[in-house]
Amino acid sequence: MDINNLIAIVKKKIEDEIVIEKILIEDKSFLHKKHQGNQKGKFHLKITIHSKELKNLNRIDGNKKIYKVIKKEMNLYIHSLQILIY
Q1: What span, in angstroms and rounded, lies between the C-alpha atoms of 4 and 10?
Q2: Which residues lie closer than 8 Å to 86 by C-beta, 6 or more apart?
């Protein structure tokens, strides 16, 4: 999977399932290239989301909702995910 395709898929899935005002998804894989657990074809993403819906949930439930929406991508293509909700 190409990183740009992955970002587009993740963004669309989140936008389709969660009410958001703004979303930014960044590839942070370069920060982890030399880590022992780094796997080829697996990416490290940072998702910054402005969402009143998620902000009204506690942090764990907000993160769980995002993980549920992108479960397939997490299993196949994402090694690490950083989530910031504001």
Answers
A1: 10
A2: 48, 49, 50, 55
Q: Which amino acid is at 41?
A: G
pLDDT score of 34? 65
Provide the whole-model pTM: 0.89
Give the model's pLDDT for residue 41.
Answer: 78
CB atoms within 10 A of CB 1: 13
Enumerate domains of the chain plus CATH numbers. Answer: 3-85 (3.30.300.90)
Other C-beta atoms within 10 Å of 40: how many? 4
As a residue count, the chain comes to 86
Pair 50, 86: CB distance under 8 Å: yes
Query: Do the beta carbons of residue 47 and residue 82 sit within 8 Å?
Result: yes
